[in-house]
Each structure stands twice: as C-alpha cells, then as structure tokens.
C-alpha cells in the first residue's frame, strides 16, 4: 500500500488477527484467512483505495472489539458477532466485492459450524 506507513498497516493487521482470538474456532479460521487474503490483495493498490481499505478495517476492528467486550459481560453465554450491512453500502460495492461477500457468506453458513448465523432480511456480517 504505497504512501502509507507500513507500521500502521502491520499494526492493524496484527490487531485484527488478535481480535479474532475471541471468535469461535471455525469463525476465527475463516476470518483469519479472509484477513490475510485481503491484506495481500491490497498490497499494491493506489493511495485512495488503500486509505478506504484501512478505514474499513479500522471500523471492523473497533466493532469487533466492542462486541467482544459486550459478549464478556453477557451472562447468557451466547456470543453475538457481526453487524448489518445496509443496502446503500452494498450499492457502492464492485461486482468483485459482491462475489467475495457471497463466497464469505456461503462459507460462514455451511452446516456443522460451531456458531450460528441468524437469518434476517438484511445481510449480517
């Protein structure tokens, strides 16, 4: 990611992988692989795209951190991760991103997972 300080990118990458430790094992493995692939895929993007990429991952890390804290305080023992993806945001995605999102959803909702994904009218990721 040209123009960005490599330590910022590396710190965010490590933070996300560290946050994934709170996820159920299957979801952690899926998330870790996705993070590694996405950071690798964005190594040589332009400055504007790199900034957007990092901003989105920083938001993800913040949300996941908040959810992990909420789950620790939740006495029911049922962990909840993810957030709704508004249709307006989906409209901004390129076809390639929609395809990746579909693949991720299919992988995350395969049977025999150790976590459950709630069915909803809005995509939840």
Automatic annotation (TrEMBL):
A biological process from GO: mitochondrial respiratory chain complex II assembly
Transit peptide recorded as keyword: yes
Alphabetical list of CDD domains matching this protein: Complex1_LYR_SDHAF3_LYRM10
Pfam families: Complex1_LYR_2 (PF13233)
Transmembrane parts of this sequence: none
InterPro entries: SDHAF3/Sdh7 (IPR008381)
The keyword GTP-binding is assigned to this record: no
Location(s) in or outside the cell: Mitochondrion matrix
Keywords noted in UniProt: Chaperone, Mitochondrion, Transit peptide
Listed GO CC annotations: mitochondrial intermembrane space; mitochondrial matrix
Function description: Plays an essential role in the assembly of succinate dehydrogenase (SDH), an enzyme complex (also referred to as respiratory complex II) that is a component of both the tricarboxylic acid (TCA) cycle and the mitochondrial electron transport chain, and which couples the oxidation of succinate to fumarate with the reduction of ubiquinone (coenzyme Q) to ubiquinol. Promotes maturation of the iron-sulfur protein subunit of the SDH catalytic dimer, protecting it from the deleterious effects of oxidants. May act together with SDHAF1.
Subunit structure as annotated in this protein's UniProt entry: Interacts with the iron-sulfur protein subunit within the SDH catalytic dimer.
Family classification: Belongs to the complex I LYR family. SDHAF3 subfamily.
Name this protein carries in UniProt: Succinate dehydrogenase assembly factor 3
Provenance organism: Macaca mulatta (Rhesus macaque)
């Amino acid at each position: 990611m040209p123009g960005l300080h490599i330590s910022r990118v590396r710190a965010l990458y490590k933070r996300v992988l560290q946050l994934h430790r709170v996820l159920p094992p299957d979801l952690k493995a899926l998330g870790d692989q996705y993070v590694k692939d996405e950071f690798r895929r964005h190594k040589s993007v332009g400055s504007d795209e790199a900034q957007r990429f990092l901003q989105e991952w920083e938001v993800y890390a913040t949300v996941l951190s908040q959810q992990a804290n909420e789950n620790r305080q939740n006495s029911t023992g049922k962990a909840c991760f993810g957030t709704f993806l508004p249709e307006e945001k989906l409209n901004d995605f390129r076809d390639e991103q929609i395809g990746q999102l579909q693949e991720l959803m299919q992988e995350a909702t395969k049977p025999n997972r150790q976590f459950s994904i709630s069915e909803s009218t809005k995509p939840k990721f």
